[in-house]
Amino acid sequence: YHQHRLQLLAIRDKFGGPNSGYFLGTFYMFKNKSIPDIFDIVVGLHKRYGPDVAIIGAFNDLVLDLSSAKNVEKVLLAKSTKKSFVYDYLEPWLGTGLLISFGEKWFQRRKIITPAFHFKILDQFMDVFNEEADILVSKLEKHVGKGEFDIYDYVTLYALDSICATSMGVQINAQEDPNNEYAQGVKQMSEFIFRRVFSVFRQFPSLFFLYPFAREQGQVIKKLHNFTNSVIEKRRQQLQAEQAVGQVEFNADEEDLYSKRRDTFLDQLLKVKVDGKPLSTADIREEVDTFMFEGHDTTTSGISFTILNLAKHQDIQQKVFEEIDGMLGANAKSTELTSSLLQDMKYLDMVIKESLRLVPPVPFIGRKLLEDMEMNGTTIPAGTTFSLNIFAIHRNPKVFPEPEKFIPERFSDDNDVKRGPYDYIPFSAGFRNCIGQKYALLEMKVTIVKLLASYRILPGETTDQVRYKADLVLRPTCGIPVKLVKRV
Ligand code: HEM
């Protein structure tokens, strides 16, 4: 243990990092701290120690928290990594779906699923985004002219409806049900995972049963799985009914997937044959669980924080509105938005990009090193955890001067501060990048255009008090408080 510690201390000398106790490591920094305080502490380490920080956690657990473009690139391109321990905590819920799997399994699944996010398919999703965003706008009507309210939960249900209708082909009408069990369950799971990550016993997964929420987690996962099972079953029945009247081809083989354009993500999973065999129900469920979660929680954060930034910056909101008004005029509220219309909204694009910079919905991603690697002139041993700190990457003052400020013009064509490919990575980069990034951008844009066409969004009394907390996704501590004024 002692020898290992000396090795880790030598590595820390090459990076910089906080003091670490002999057994409990840096636990002292997080003890009795609130969730937003913990987020600030992790981010603050970069201000103190520089872009790459070595944290020696309890029982000699080394985490390299990286934000320099050169080291982030090195890790993202390395073949000898897998996802870090944090993703193991997701496994009882998400199985080894696309987010978590690696090696051959990941490669095969990515190949099967990629066509479901082809831009031609995304075009077909536009009617769903339009329809669901119209419902969102109507649900918000009751807040017009009233006091501040939290818009985050409305956006969550909207995003959940959208992912189910687009990718699963099933309507769940979550927007009609503010107490939706699935959305509640995701919140609870995120919290359990956060508590494990910052627990001193995290190195001992077999002791999980001792955690106070271990039993509750089992029940929550059961609820989440019941929900996704019901979505799969509903779609299976719909397909069978369509097949009975001759509308669906049921023997698509793997090669066909790239030419097929009409199937949803779930249809493809239900129909695909790998080595002549269909995927098992468990295989399908783990992907549906993965996409249902990744496909709504991330975009909810992206949309909500864009709303927050627009509420705080009325001048920028006005410019976005003028762009919408200039293109759609009096029909702004009722126009069916298409991807080509959105493409012409250049300022909106800059606003969304800047919001994903300032508040990246996925603030950290984790990797575990499987083979030794050279970094900062030293050997990093296999088994080390890397945390790629997207939040800190996006606040590099050399690339983003005055990084705390919301300045969409950073993304204009004539901004002359040059960016490298690893300086801005809200969707990660390299072969494990986000498969849903185009989907996410379209959904975010439709929502913002629909909202601004109907309402001016004002800050509430407590808007300035919003702090960040990060579990799997970056979230506001107490929702996104705003006020609405109707546009006439
Ligand atoms: C603003 C919204 C989004 C952001 C910021 C985002 C960000 C990311 C990031 C940073 C990763 C890399 C994770 C890692 O390496 O561990 C990722 C992966 C992934 N994302 Fe997204 N995402 C968003 C929306 C979506 C949507 C809408 C979907 C699905 C419809 C989705 C599905 C996935 C999946 C399945 C992966 C794993 C891909 C793989 O490993 O092959 N994401 N996303």
TrEMBL record:
Location(s) in or outside the cell: Endoplasmic reticulum membrane; Microsome membrane
Recorded superkingdom: Eukaryota
Any GO CC annotation of this UniProt entry: endoplasmic reticulum membrane
Main localization (coarse): endoplasmic reticulum
One Pfam family it belongs to: p450
Tagged with keyword Iron: yes
Matching InterPro entries: Cyt_P450, Cyt_P450_E_grp-I, Cyt_P450_sf, Cytochrome_P450_Monoox
A GO term for molecular function: iron ion binding
Cited SUPFAM superfamilies: Cytochrome P450 (SSF48264)
Binding site for heme: C434
Gene3D superfamilies: Cytochrome P450 (1.10.630.10)
Record's keyword terms, sorted: Endoplasmic reticulum, Heme, Iron, Metal-binding, Microsome, Monooxygenase, Oxidoreductase, Signal
Cofactor(s) needed: heme
Membrane topology classification: Peripheral membrane protein
Family: Belongs to the cytochrome P450 family.
Name the UniProt record assigns to this protein: AGAP008358-PA-like protein
Organism in which the protein naturally occurs: Anopheles sinensis (Mosquito)
Phylogenetic classification of the source organism: Eukaryota, Metazoa, Ecdysozoa, Arthropoda, Hexapoda
